[in-house]
Amino acid sequence: MDDISHYKLRDETPENIARAIYVVNRHAKTAPNPKYLYYLKKKALQKLIAEGKATKKGLHYSKNPKLSKQQSDVLVLAGNYYFHMPPTKEDFQNLPHLGSLNNSYRNPKTNLSLSKAKNLLEYYIGMDKANRPLSSPKRFHRHTYQKPVFKRLGERYD
After folding, report:
1. Of 133, 120, 116, which Cα lies nearest the Cα of 47?
2. Alpha helices, DSSP H only, in 29-82?
């Protein structure tokens, strides 16, 4: 297992950014509100691609298409990690279609906390403290169960 906890938080090598994206993406898949995590992933991948530190390899059929329609995702190589992101119109024109996803490949595991990964990506994409959400929205507390009150026929509920 790779451990980047001993690295400086601001160590912005493409490999460290890719590790942070991997951790954020892994947590987003099971998070109750994954929107912000997917936003971080998308912005970081776009910046890596713009800087020439990541490359778009091709298009894959989506594993979970919306409304049972066939859909494609862009396969992006960043460091030793592969990621999927939504395609643009230009991607359909410029990238080869690679067919179905190869399930035999797995990204390398990494040992990095979600908070460190988020901090690294926020710093990398240039997100200032004012625009950053403080925490995920708090869930509503469930009310304790109350037995229903039954009145006799003709009695009032006050």
Report:
1. 120
2. 35-50
Quick check: helix, strand or coil at residue 28?
Answer: helix
pTM: 0.72
Residues 6 or more apart in contact with residue 110 via CB below 8 angstroms: 1, 2, 3, 4, 19, 22, 23
Q: How many domains does the chain have?
A: 1
What range defines the domain where residue 83 resides? Answer: 2-125
CB 15 within 8 Å of CB 79: yes
Q: Is residue 144 situated within a structural domain?
A: no
In the three-class reduction of DSSP (H, G, I as helix; E, B as strand; rest coil), residue 61 is classed as: strand
Listed residue (148, 134, 147) closest to 36, CA to CA = 134
Please, is 98 exposed, middle or buried when counting C-beta atoms within 10 Å of its C-beta (0-12, 13-18, 19+)? Answer: middle
Residue 133's pLDDT band, with cuts at 50, 70 and 90, is low
pLDDT score for 131: 66
